[in-house]
Model the fold of this input.
Amino acid sequence: MNKSQIILGIETSCDETAISIIQDNESGIPKILSNIVSSQFDIHKEFGGVVPELAARSHVEKINLIAKKALDESGLTLDKISAVATTSGPGLTICLSVGLNFGKSLASSLNIPFIGVNHLEGHALSPKLHTNISYPYLLLLISGGHSQFLSVNGLGSYKRLGTTIDDALGEAFDKTAKLLGIEFPGGPKLEKFAEKGNPNKFDLPKPIINKGGCNLSFAGLKTAILRITRTIKNEQEKFDLAASFQKTIEEIIYIKTKKAFKEFKEIISTNNNNFVVAGGVAANKGIRNKIFKVSKENNFNPIFPELSLCGDNAAMIAMVGLEKLKVNQFDRLDLPVSPRLPLDKNAKFLKGAGVVFD
Ligand code: KG4
Ligand code: ZN
Done:
């Protein structure tokens, strides 16, 4: 394959309008020529969460400008682009449609391949933008909508080992932050808040910690937090609650990761002990430290995306696009939006009150 393949990636699955251009490189680690991410925090702040219609409208308003910025920053002209890769799911349908239609039109007008990308696979491959990692590897994906342990066996080949049976970890951070009166988006700010508190002040539950393998559950924690916030008397107690929450999450991740290591080793025969931790919550320093500890103790090699690549971005979408281009995996221009696109298509649905572990 021509080594200078250049991919333009597009991401609009939620509240970030992002376009990036990356170039393949002989080292195996592509060069990020531009990576523009435009967040919509100010638009959604007053509602305390993402409003899909407003998010989609903002994508429509900004996508041309962001594309121009990405192109200008890369120093390239459109005729140098080899393929267009766009998130096709999972995410908000009306948001995904904006990026998908833009990407299809661009690819069609340039007469180059169009590649639909699973947003979660973007997170899964995000550390490949700065590190050489070979398959298979263990993945912990912790974002605003998903929390899963997966064995990544190859491009497009995933086996889920564990998943949250209720809230995603990022969602738990965001909801706890909201209950503590922290402004949207609260997840990243909660960690700072926690630094001022006593992590041992409140004893919080760790749902399904001794059962359900490496499956996860965070909804009970949120309910406990809600109950405690009603009794809180001063600002210090808020800091203490945030610190207790952060500590409890770190302990849950520590214990469940140990279980995931064991399951990964049982199903995959490999000397490869790489452990990728990706998604927005992978930016959390306390969680990173716990992952380093548990990995060292169990002989795994933890790999995180660079901080700027933990949250939603289009460089990770272009990364998947590049791998797909190398094996000629293209999509037709009638590829639909897939708001519920899983990584492991064979994994059982594990959500809600009906899920019971022995
Ligand atoms: O991967 P991402 O940008 O979007 C999704 O695909 O969902 O993840 C966003 C999530 C949000 O819930 C946000 O609060 C959380 O990641 N997050 C954090 C931190 N930074 C982002 N949660 C805890 N600590 C952080 N430092
Ligand atoms: Zn994401």
